[in-house]
Amino acid sequence: MTINQKFFKKSKSLNVDKFFDIVMYDKKIGYYSKKNPFNFDGDYVTAPNISPLFSEIVAIWIILTWEKLDKPNKINIVELGPGNGKMTKMLCRTFQNFPDFENKYNMLLYEKSDFLKKIQKKEVSKFKVKWINSLKEISKYPVIFVGNEFVDAIPIKQFIKKKGIFYEKYFVLKKDKIEEKYKKTNYATIKLLKKFKSIKNNRFIEFPLMAFKELEKITDLIFKQKGAILLIDYGYIKSNNENTLQSVRKHKFNDLLKNLGDSDVTSLVNFKLIKEYIKKKKIKVGKIITQSQFLKKNGIMERAEIISKKMNFSEKSDLYYRIKRLTGQQQMGELFKVIEAIKKV
Questions:
Q1: Most CB within 10 Å of its CB: which of 84, 244, 270, 296?
Q2: Cβ distance 164 to 205 under 8 Å?
Q3: CA–CA separation, 141 and 72 (whole Å)
Q4: pLDDT at position 327
């Protein structure tokens, strides 16, 4: 059996989100079941691997949010898709500097990949951390969710609209070759798509149904228990009707349908659509800002100035080079967007 046949074992025709869910998350052949993609010797680098200051600033945001929630005596901190555990480790380390907060939080990691869980366990072995497989496992205290590059890793649906008729994109296996095919969309899906103003005029639609299913559980918990969510991701605010699915292997773009299971597949996040969804859940959503604005607003430059005083020239140069990667206009600073939402009462 070829690798393509393995992905189409259950069906010879799969819509985009189901296909990439198998490619990325199948427990035997999926990308995240067998590979550590993070860091410079992997396929891509995330912000917590560029500089620990990124995670430190996220920790500061969590503590400030805890204060906005009137400093509950117990609070759940949930990291969504914690990657290689670098951010979790730095969050816990930073919390040690805030004695008022340190004994108040439960650190929970929401991770789908058993392979990545093993990597995370090595990274955070010194800290009190619990892994959860379901959001139902979260205790009934207020809860703060944090997701860095969480939404972009959840497969999306794709549609085209021609003369008012919606067609959904599928991948079909024919003689071991994967081809694209469009099929008319069912009424229930059309009705759902029409609920969102931010995609109303799009000819090409990327719809994060799987991500919305996760966000539904998350926002329900925030609404019932009080809490907040912070999402940081590679994405856009205004849609330009483009296919944003992309594949990366060893830090280079890869043909989307090649090296399946051995390359990372993501899509850009439509932040306007995510904001619209969260607002429908009656949770206060802030303005969508860039990663640069978020990091600077929460004190990354001031923190860098303090720690650089004890550094030599080369260490200082390295520190600011990494900060530039996180905040630079042509780099992650502008390409990544941030959304915050909170429910206090």
A1: 270
A2: no
A3: 8
A4: 97
CATH tag, 5-156+204-299+337-343: 3.40.50.150
CA distance 91 to 107: 9
Q: What's the predicted TM-score (pTM) here?
A: 0.95
For 284-290, the CB contacts below 8 A with 24+ separation are 284/341, 284/342, 284/343, 284/344, 285/339, 285/340, 285/341, 286/339, 286/340, 286/341, 286/342, 288/237, 288/337, 288/338, 288/339, 289/337, 289/338, 290/333, 290/334, 290/336, 290/337, 290/338
- How far apart CA 63 and CA 57 sit, in angstroms, is 10
The mean per-residue pLDDT over the stretch 302-330 comes to 94
The per-residue pLDDT for 240 is: 81
Q: What confidence tens digit (pLDDT) does each residue in 227-240 have?
A: 999 999 999 998 88
Average pLDDT, the chain: 94
191 has a pLDDT exceeding 90: yes
Q: Is the pLDDT of residue 288 over 80?
A: yes
Which residues, including other chains, have CB under 8 Å from residue 156's CB and lie 6 or more apart?
Answer: 16, 17, 206, 207, 208, 209, 210, 211, 245, 267
Cα-based angle 20, 233, 324 (whole degrees, multiple of 5): 130
Q: Is the pLDDT of residue 4 over 90?
A: no
Any idea where the domains of the chain sit in the sequence?
Answer: 5-156+204-299+337-343
Distance CA 138, CA 108 (A): 8
